[in-house]
């Protein structure tokens, strides 16, 4: 696939892996890395035929992403801070808007912008050595890449406020208990576990998977009657796809479906 300076993008048998690759800085997110993430996500979006699921992870054994790059941020003025935040929102928004399902394979420190990146993914499979936190207040700032919002939606207001106001880290078991982590794995088994889930998902039709994540994300904060109505519209639309005919025909013919994403 395409080469980037700060991330690696590889694809194998329908599953792409995007690795944040600045291990000397614990994969901290500077502008160049956020730009590379956005560009790599465009490649994923434009290759729906070849890529059905995306795994996002960090390079090295220590960190998924240890936050936004503090050495870049220290001397920024408010306008530059807003630009950096916009850059991150643009890239993280692309993750949510992909049809492809996204899995964060959290291999180590997942702090600040790192937790905000992981929170933008559809699922989080985490190493039992991973540590999670929003330490921004310890630096005199607040989360600026969506942390006050996406973390709150994952764990509820009380826990989000506790994590953000204390700035302290929680371990993988606690992250699992509060709903940040969907599964916890041994470090050596993390990518295999993420790949196993990705393999199950990629067998399903990309349209149905993409629509399911779209309706879950878009309708989550609507009143229930509107959300149900939205789901009904999406459900009805799947009956206009070849995948629906193929899925149901395959069931009736007692064979595996061959979805084409049409
Ligand atoms: N930015 C820049 N460099 C970093 C970062 C970071 N976030 N994290 C680690 N590094 C660098 C260290 O400076 C060090 O570099 P060097 O070897 O050149 O001295 C290298 O990575 C290794 O780190 P440590 O030596 O500190 O490793 P330790 O094992 O001792 O500690 C920790 C690991 C606990 C993860 C520690 O590095 C740490 O606390 N890092 C900072 C974590 C943090 O505060 N993250 C939040 C940053 S703020 C943020 O993400 C805000 C997002 C919203 C921004 C909105 C902007 C508008």
Model description:
The protein has 11 helices and 10 strands. The protein is of the alpha/beta class and 262 residues long. It has a 6-stranded mixed β-sheet with strand order 1-2-3-5-7-10, sandwiched between helices. Strands 4-6-8-9 form a 4-stranded mixed β-sheet. A hairpin with a 2-residue loop joins β1 and β2 (15-20). 40% of the residues are buried. The mean pLDDT is 96. The protein has helices at residues 31-45, 70-73, 78-97, 113-119, 147-155, 157-166, 172-178, 190-202, 206-219, 224-238, 242-252; strands at 7-12, 15-20, 53-58, 63-65, 101-106, 109-111, 123-127, 131-133, 170-171, 183-185. Octanoyl-coenzyme A is lined by residues 25-26, 28, 66-71, 73, 81, 84-85, 109, 111-113, 135-136, 139, 143-145. Octanoyl-coenzyme A (CO8) binds next to α2, α3 and β6.
Strand and helix layout:
Elements: E1 7-12, E2 15-20, H1 31-45, E3 53-58, E4 63-65, H2 70-73, H3 78-97, E5 101-106, E6 109-111, H4 113-119, E7 123-127, E8 131-133, H5 147-155, H6 157-166, E9 170-171, H7 172-178, E10 183-185, H8 190-202, H9 206-219, H10 224-238, H11 242-252
Parallel strand pairs: 2-3, 3-5, 4-6, 5-7, 6-8, 7-10
Antiparallel strand pairs: 1-2, 8-9
The protein binds octanoyl-coenzyme A.
Octanoyl-coenzyme A is lined by residues 25-26, 28, 66-71, 73, 81, 84-85, 109, 111-113, 135-136, 139, 143-145.
Kindly provide the radius of gyration, computed on alpha-carbon positions and rounded to a whole number of angstroms: 19 Å
Q: In DSSP terms, counting alpha (H) and pi (I) runs of 4 or more, how many helices?
A: 11
SS elements, strand count: 10
- Approximately how much helix is present in the residues? 40-55%
End-to-end Cα distance, whole Å, is: 24 Å
Averaged pLDDT = 96
Strand content: 15-25%
The biggest sheet amounts to: 6 strands, mixed
